[in-house]
Fold these 2 entries.
Entry 1:
Amino acid sequence: MKILVTGGAGYVGSHAVIDFCDAGHDVTVYDDLSLGMTDNIDIRATFVEGSTHDISLLRDVLSQGFEAVVHFAAWKAAGESMVDPKKYSHNNMNGTLNILNIMMDLNIKYFIFSSTAAVYGFPEYLPIDEDHPVNPINYYGYTKLAIEQNLKWFSDLQGLRYAALRYFNAAGYDVKGRIRGKERNPQNLLPVVMEVASGIRNSLKIFGDDYKTHDGTGVRDYIHVNDLATAHIKALDYLVDNDKDIVLNLASGEGFSVLDVINETEKVSGNAVPYEIEGRREGDPAELVSISKLAWAHLKWKPVFSDLNTLITSTWNVYKP
Ligand code: UDP
């Protein structure tokens, strides 16, 4: 199938592009390179440098016989979205609606959407399943939920078929070492820990050590990017085979604390990871773990690379000096 992958030069997108190419799809990456890197793009894919706000370029490109769009291009820092919401409404909402509007004009039917656990907000129970109420507590999560709701309307009114994949904490790097580009200006825990272990930063701030978790630090469900990538291929197959939409969680089902991540990184790298304890970060729940029961039921997907050692080792292979 001819597929456009927006944000295909970015962190999760570049891993998915490899798998779409491996599956025999004809892949074009559409990326503005604001955070993505051309080095990350599989050589089997065609590359178009462009923004989701460039409607005429998007229309020209999408007019070339595409059947599906896999949409990664978005901002993803929850904290930043609370201080600069316009940046998030512009890219995550306007940019996505531009794509959807053009897809509807051109009768492009299939859409795979990078959604997020942030649509749920504070957990009312754990593990979070897809029946958990959605109530985002940061603007980033709201932008993703708003698009999910638009997708439902586009599906009901225009016959779009979509998969909304709610990632928990995306982490790790390609276990075969094919993606080497480090994330620029990272704010998530794993790349920050890696920057400390490799000497790019001096130390790390731990946001809270007084949570009711096994060691007092925040617990998250880290899902390996290779596992995420696989789910996208299966989700597209599902849409084509079943002609039905799906909304599902992608998670490992296991939680690791900030200190678990630091300890494993020290073990794998052989380097110290100095840290200071800061106050809690606003909007951070103590624990966020999920169960991907729908991904198993519909896609026969289960994570295989999301154990702590594989997450850390695959990332250290990219960060080690
Ligand atoms: N965290 C931290 N220091 C950092 C970045 C993150 O202590 O520099 C903690 C954060 O409070 C949370 C966990 O690490 O408990 C994962 O945070 P991240 O920002 O990676 O993802 P989030 O869960 O916020 O989506």
Note: The CA atoms of residues 9 and 41 lie 5 Å apart.
Entry 2:
Amino acid sequence: RRMRNLVKMSDLSKEEVYSLIQRALELKAGASPIQRPDLIAANLFFENSTRTKHSFEVAQMKLGLQVLNFEASTSSLNKGETLYDTCKTLEAIGCNMLVIRHSQEAYYQELEGLTIPIVSGGDGSGEHPSQCLLDLMTLYEHFGLIEGLEVVIAGDIKNSRVARSNYHMLTRLGAKVQFVGPQIFADPTLGQMVDFDQVIGQVDACMLLRVQFERHQEAVALSRADYHAHYGLTPARYQALKPQAIVMHPAPVNRDMEIASELVEAPQSRIFTQMTNGRFMRQAILEKLIADNAL
Ligand code: ASP
């Protein structure tokens, strides 16, 4: 099986997920990444990004790739050029792979005419495959397995591409996923909301999500304090966690909303570990993309 693009988690088999995790852990332990200074990677981020964009860039540098950062605001998109024509142009001038983040769900469907591969850095509320893989790596690194883990995902489930990718892949790998959050953030296609205090003491991982204010049609009137009290990781909920359980958040974090500020770097938090792991996972993804596409 060959990974032509990585735009959604269903592009990967379970075996491929585990082999990406193994490779990312090897790279983290000091293995040398492949070196391909002959290849050019272009990064096109049409939505804001700190971690995904820069960790892809660091991963590309570590593989010796040449890096082209596309500037949407000064490009011919402002003259009405389509996303397809923009990407086809980068292909025509010699880019070998594209990393794209775009606010439109499934934007990659209009890019099927490209011959160079795409890695998605997130499509609107759709999916976020590299985040999902780094989350799985972080779970695997701590527990040595994924099957049988109990995970609670708390926050804006409906608008979160992180929730969607993680729900689908965690379930496929045999983990149990439950959701916490206000009713307005429920996605009934994934599952119902449960009470945070009922599950906090049982879970292996507590995954917190940011409220995606930029994706809400109507202004959502949420009091930070109320949200924190009902759906946030408070010091009392942190105390209720099993000693082996871990706390995760894809970031950016709204401090004192989804998580008490003092807990961001608490001993059971893996929030910054997730970022470190993300760089190694993105190296592993790019290595696989290069190998599978015979670049
Ligand atoms: N950084 C993640 C994403 O781009 C999560 C978030 O923005 O809340 O989806």
Note: The mean pLDDT is 96.
